[in-house]
## 1
Amino acid sequence: MGKNYSRPQALTDVVTHYCPGCGHGILHRLVAEIIDELGIRGSAIAVAPVGCAVVAYDYWDIDCAEAAHGRALAVATGLKRVQPDKIVFTYQGDGDLAAIGTAETIHAANRGENLTVIFVNNAVYGMTGGQMAPTTLLSQKTATTPRGRQAATEGYPLKISEMLALLNGVVSVERTAVSSPKEVLNTRRAIKDAFMNQMERKGFSIVEVLSMCPTYWDKSPVDAARWISEEMVKYFPLGKIK
Amino acid sequence: MAKVKINRQRCKSCQLCIVWCPRKNLKLDETLSETGVFPAVVIDPANCTGCGMCFVMCPDACIEIEG
């Protein structure tokens, strides 16, 4: 990443509302760094989700649109088709992309829309108070699974990235994490690749990022990062899926 | 010698930088910041190599490194 350890210009000069140790902050910075590096600050358009990152448009100094819950890829499809020279990306959580927005996600991917998707998987609904998400791990305790998620009643964690990799319209699927410096730098590389795919008009790219939610995992930030490396990766293995 | 600048107003005391500093050269301050947390501070500036691990892990982009 070179030796530029300064605040990226595409990141606005405000204090975020995120909890201490939240992975969103790291990801926001990575996205801003890549936008600066690629020189696309004037042509990038973000589509913000509903979830903890709902006010991402306050944190990036670029054009942003706000979509209804789960509909970020539908809005992004419209933006990209009307302005194909812009670099359009969505930034969505697991409740947004993998629950209420599953239909929009799958069909945008299947159409092979030339978009970049950053999918933040923290295995829980953060904004609404820590309820079970589709990606919540088995036996993980949440506000709506106080005895831990059970496959018999709540089903299995949804591997949406593996599902999307099966579609012909998808050119790139990768799963990374922000749980250690090595993984953060790998995530940066993966997101940059996903932006490059769009700039080279290759098609639909998605990067799933395993991210910490210390508050609703009931862990310290450091223990939350460790939990990703030790537990979450067992069910959501890191690496290039497609 | 690298110069690490930590923005006290923006630090939320998550301690990710402290844990990943390979030289264990960061700690929590003993006085509260204006926002009511104990922000991270550099223990010995002369001991910092400017490797950037703290910058990479900071969720609040409150660390900058010069040199």
## 2
Amino acid sequence: MRVELHNICKRFGSVQANDDVSLIVEAGSIHGLLGENGAGKSTLVKILSGFMTREQGSLQLEGHEVNIKTPADAMQRGIGMLHQDPLDFPPLSVLDNFMVGQPGGLFTHRREVIRKFRQLAVQFNFALDIRQPVGDLTVGERQQVEILRLLSLGVKTLILDEPTTGISASQKDALFAAARLLASQGKSVIFVSHKLEDVDELCDRVTVMRQGRVVGNLPIPAPDAQLIELIFGEELAPPAKNSTCQEGVALALENITIRSDRLNIQVNHLTVQQGEVIGLAGLEGSGQQLLLQLCAGLLQSSTGCLQIKGIDLTRQPYQTYLNTGVGYSPADRLREGLVNGLSIHEHVALKTSSQGWFVDWKGTLKQAQTAISLFNIRGKPDTKVERLSGGNQQRTQLALLPVPLNLLLMEHPTRGLDIGSTLWVWQQLLARCEGGTTILFTSSDLDEIMQYSDRVIVFSGGELSEPIDAKKLTVERLGQMIGGKLHYDSPVMAKRSTKHPAKR
Amino acid sequence: MDTSQIISILSVAIATSTPLVFATLGETITERAGVINLSAEGTILLSAMVGFAVAKTTEGLGTVPSLLLGFGAAALTGAAIALIVAFGALTLMQSQVSIGFVLTLLGADLSSFLGNPFVRIPGPTVPSFKVPVLQDIPVFGPLLFQSDLLVYISFLLILLTWLFFYCTRPGLMLRAIGEQPAAAFVRGTNVVFMRYFYTLLGGALVGIAGAAFSLDFKAGWSHRHTAGYGWIALAIVIFGGWNPLRVALSCYLFGILQSLASVAQSTIPNVPTQVITVAPFVMMILFLVLTSSEWLEKLLKLLPPRIGWAIAQSIHSKPPAALGRVFQQD
Amino acid sequence: MISKISISRFNVYQVGSLVIALAFIAGVILMVGGSPLAVVTSMGAGAFGTTDQFARVVATLAPLLLCASGLLFTFTAGLYNLGIEGQIVLGGIAAMIPIRLFQEILPAPLVIAMAITAGALGGMLWGLLAGILKVYGRIDEIFAGVGLNFMADGLALYLIFGPWKKPGVASMSGTEQFSEAIWLPTFGKTEASPVALVIALSLLLLTFIVLRGTYFGLKLKAVGHSLRASYILGIPALSQLLSAFALCGAFAGIAGSLQVLAVFHRLIPSISSNLGYLALLIAMLSGSQAWLLLPIAFFFSALNIGSLQLPLSLDLESSLSGVIQGTLVLFALLGRGFSELNKSDLNKTVNH
């Protein structure tokens, strides 16, 4: 089905997620949608699939203007979306998941559905046990169930949102084969991704988005260098930071394994100096957060050992980490970083809790006022943290971090802050580094990573690169690595990019 | 103890647990949709009173019409209380537990206050009805088919609920809503509306349970007549793993405990009656504690893996993932 | 400006819900052919007509205050301690132990002190049990609590009809009364005991101070709002939860021991008389504000005692007090919901 989106606009608070975005997908084609974190890809496809409402713009299917307000509307018109995180029912069986929402009479007609399911599964070469609860399946298999379900409903346009994260190579092959088969049947596929090689392999055309706008639309094959330039902008900010590294190892990881339901992370060996700043780059959910939580003591490795300042903290309780001078500032401010329902003043008071039985409300009020003016928080001491804006919550979180610290782990230290505050925040953080604090931080802003890191580790789908000196990074190399080519042969790459910057 | 004695214990057990079957199946439906209606204790008390009062005042119309009116009024009472829970929880986003708890106490006190004129007076009761032919089947006949219509309806209800859950499209969607409302919404359901509907339906069944006490098994009404049964119903739903068949079997287990208790009363006279009356409640809760804690899992790991797994599968169960959580469409 | 608007809106909903609640109560009274006005006068007279009646209001106030104070700890920690009834019963049972053992050996004041301490320990044990089931057994505290209530009732019945039964014949009226020396002193010949009242008021004050002024209270509040965030901020969340259960249990246990020492002078089957559940309503209505407990508890206690007159004076059931209490709390909750709902609607329109 031919899909056209014209002049779509969508805003979340102060962020313009989609700014006058237009996209045309031809019937029988696989169309890639590329862009980094927060470029607006997901927002766009969620609008198309009825999951979000648009503020402006129009949708056309097969040349006819349509209005899609709910997922049910979209389904009815033949648009189905495979969500990045499986939206299914873990305890229900594969068959039940397949059946939920299928049209029909009162009864489920199990036998007929099974026949239909098997027929589709054979067609796409998916091997699924219909009785197994989907909660026991891998992410790739859950996607397969969902794709079969969407197809059985007569989907004419299939949206795949970052489908290749966390699935095996053979599952990826099966997925791609399925997508090609659909395109050959005259259906259209929209493939949202950040991985160049996947887009390269699968798509007929690609649209690149950056900061809520469409910045390019070209046929595949397209030169990697050109795509990377479109995705990340022409140039990265130059590394601006003077080294704050000091003698002495602050953090040492040896043979660490972290498992989550989607990712499996292996760190063979990593040492970080005192005062050093390590930027963790990569798409959100590629494993950066897991590494930070491990270093914070909130996750445990099943193997190996972890040392902070020479103290072995492997499998020690979280409290020991805190006592060793480890600070963690999570991205989910209202669920993890701050206590929803408590005021700024109460947060400041909690920080002083080692001092006897009674809270010195007057003294802590002064401290809270000092913190508010020092960190320029727009709020009063008795303002509940959930009433603060995102940026001010971030400032509060920063104000609450203990001084001094040996190791500071920050997720998105400046998300939601304006430029002036960002500079100010980093001034504070770098001052801590001068004092010997080691910082590991994640950011979806590559400029920030480049500007403030001594070394950078790139994450992709749970794998992580060797730490790379920020001064040796180029936008192309970073783009390739984020896109999955972590172990790109760097000397060759450097040579190529100097000689033929835009050709491959 | 001979066979006929065992059969009589079992048949008494089945009959006495019939009201609980209605209550627990109702609560199972509600909780499967993701809503906790904690008010069962108050709902049963109040609807028992209302059902009896309505049947008593309409007694002149004849037994059957008055009974029907009584059961209808009880169902409406249950649904009305459920409506308050649903409105408070789903529309006003207040704590389901708080509202349910207040309604528990309010229902109990309202039943006492309003029902004062109806205390311990004779009224219409569901007549016994032996199913022809079937009652003559050895063992099963006396066990299942020699009681009254309400008991047979409860059998039917168990079957229908099970069929609804596992063989119909709306039933599948009901299970889906309680697990992952966002995914159910994507599949085209109005989650909040369906939750209202199932909360009311479940409440009506709990209401019928009340009338089943006052118009059948206790044959009359008195203050705090059914105290404890609402709480035990809530516990049985958990113990039965939110599965209609297992929930119903758990009700019968409770019934058997009660029958055994009354047998014990005559055989071991030195344990006081009052203790024996409470014993089934205590044992049921102990069962619940034992089966739902993680200590059991540790214990099962000591067994051979296959046996351990089989036991774990049969007694362990997870609540609907979204139970008690508000769904906000964004 | 905005805060002023929201405060006045809040008041509108509170007053509105109160009016509807009163209308509902009046409707219920009219339904049984009573007169709401007559009920008000009768209940007023029932609670405050004679010193004896007023003394009973005060006597009921003490355990209510104790339980509601204890419940503030669990509510602050985000827990519904429905096991409070059982904790009262265990307090009563535990208080009987030193009384039975030492009533003829040791001086009375010492026995009384031991009984109250034992009551606190017994209640604490029962509270901790619910807490352990919640924290380590993954059993919702609501069902753990209700289950433990059944068990406590069973235990009390067993003792009354078994090992502690009255010489001669055991009965629902409880164990044999213990010697008058161990009864808590009362105001004149009434039921109100100054000792019980002083204990209740000082523990209320303690609750107020702990929740307002100490790190323990502040941490409890943090844990109640967000277990995860509190843990990350370095608060030992699980031990905070257990302490809340233990404290609430201890307070309820003291209430149980006072019921034994001051009111019944023996162990009876339903020693808690539903006071624990009533205290839950009081704590809910107070919105976890300690200073509101005293007036609400006093009012509820007066309702309880006042309603005892109703069967005699107006031929109405005394459970009307429960109807009034439940209705007030229900509509207060719904009113709170309405005000929050409209506040968030207001915010939405501001944002757009």
